[in-house]
Write a structure and sequence with these properties.
single chain, about 400 residues, three-stranded antiparallel beta sheet, 22 helices
């Protein structure tokens, strides 16, 4: 990997200033203060000739001679890391951890930075080992923070819970909602293993940690739904509505199926109609349209969609309306025109039907509780990108409170 020009200016400058500062602090003669070792100049020459590995060897030789250059080597390693040259950053930090002459605080810092290097490189076992070795150092809180990030990457949710509580003991602000999500992840794993009893226990832990965690209520409803306890499932989803109604579209289809399974179709349509009016959502609207079609026929569903599109114009809604209108149509000229119109609209709606992270802008067709882009929890709003223009995030927060 080639070095950029500013490296050739910045690195020699850092070493020169650092060396002179270290020498000025010493009470030695003037001649000794103004001299730099030959290894330093060799390192600069290697940088100029774009031989970074040989340059590292030369600069490490400087550190072997004089421990006052430790901070300069931290700076060099950080530059390598920012350039994405993690292997070279690891090499510098490993050298610093092996030097017996440096101060314990500097060795702890080098160990911490080495752990960060391993974490960035995806060498998670060595990163975990480095951070654990700092348990009794002045960097234990920072190491615990990195371990929490590591365990989230590994999806080791039980260890993540342990580290989150440890961080709280250090006074670090770990949101209760994040810890509740860790319990929800454990519950999801238990549900996949068909262990509903363990899943319920984990979800109760989630609600004890954060009583407003809507995900836990949604998942409890899904467990009851899978067991055929449809009334209990609906009860949990009504709890979710009180916690944050904007997440109801995630379980809209199962809500309708639950009402239908109990023979309460009319009540289900009334509930979905009320939800659509209070918490407008294209996903809820499509569930309602399906329910109306199953209960009252295609024309009733078409009339519903047309009324809602007029009330709340959107390309997503228009696309579904045209799809409904084209069902069973003969291939005449009018139908061809409608199909062409829908094809043109569909090309635009593909980007509008994605979910969007409010923190980093990541977009995906699938809803995520934790953003894959920035790893923040609850930063993706369960509304399509087009809908966010009509219903800003602040309104959702007010609904949550």
């Amino acid at each position: 990997m080639e070095f950029e020009t500013w490296w050739l200016i910045l690195i020699p400058l850092i070493f020169s200033l650092g060396w002179m500062a270290a020498r000025l602090e010493r009470k030695s003669d003037v001649s000794a203060r103004g001299q730099l070792p030959a290894s330093y100049f060799k390192g600069v020459n290697f940088l100029l000739s774009e031989q970074p590995d040989k340059a590292i060897d030369a600069f490490l030789e400087v550190a072997a001679v004089d421990t006052n250059t430790v901070e300069l080597h931290f700076a060099l390693a950080n530059l390598f890391r920012k350039k994405g040259e993690i292997d070279r950053a690891i090499r510098v930090h490993q050298f610093l951890t092996s030097r017996e002459q440096i101060q314990p605080a500097d060795r702890a810092k080098a160990t911490f930075e080495l752990g960060v290097d391993f974490l960035r490189a995806g060498i998670l076992d060595r990163a975990e080992q480095a951070f654990h070795s700092l348990a009794n150092s002045h960097l234990q809180a920072d190491a615990a923070r990195q371990l929490l990030e590591l365990y989230e990457l590994e999806k080791a949710w039980d260890k993540a819970i342990e580290q989150a509580h440890r961080l709280r003991e250090f006074g670090a602000p770990v949101p209760a909602g994040d810890i509740a999500h860790f319990y929800c992840e454990l519950a999801t794993q238990a549900m996949a293993d068909k262990d509903n009893a363990r899943a319920k226990a984990e979800l109760q832990n989630a609600l004890l940690t954060d009583g407003q965690n809507v995900r836990a209520s949604l998942l409890l409803g899904e467990i009851y739904y899978s067991q055929g306890a449809y009334d209990d499932a609906l009860g949990q989803w009504r709890t979710a509505e009180r916690q944050n109604p904007w997440y109801l579209p995630l379980v809209g289809p199962k809500m309708w199926e639950a009402y239908k399974a109990m023979g309460r179709d009319r009540e289900g349509i009334e509930a979905l109609t009320a939800y659509c009016a209070q918490y407008p959502s294209i996903d809820l609207l499509l569930v309602l349209a399906k329910a109306v079609e199953e209960a009252n026929g295609e024309q009733a569903a078409f009339d519903l969609l047309r009324e809602q599109v007029r009330l709340r114009p959107s390309l997503l809604g228009l696309d579904k309306l045209l799809e409904q209108q084209l069902r069973g149509k003969m291939d005449d000229e009018r139908s061809k025109d409608l199909r062409l119109t829908r094809e043109l609209i569909s090309k635009h709606t593909q980007r509008l039907e994605r979910y969007r992270c409010q923190s980093c802008g990541f977009q995906a067709k699938k809803f995520y509780w934790q953003c894959p882009g920035c790893a923040n929890w609850d930063s993706i709003v369960p509304r399509r990108a087009e809908e966010l223009d009509f219903y800003p995030v602040s309104a959702k927060k007010q609904a949550h409170s």
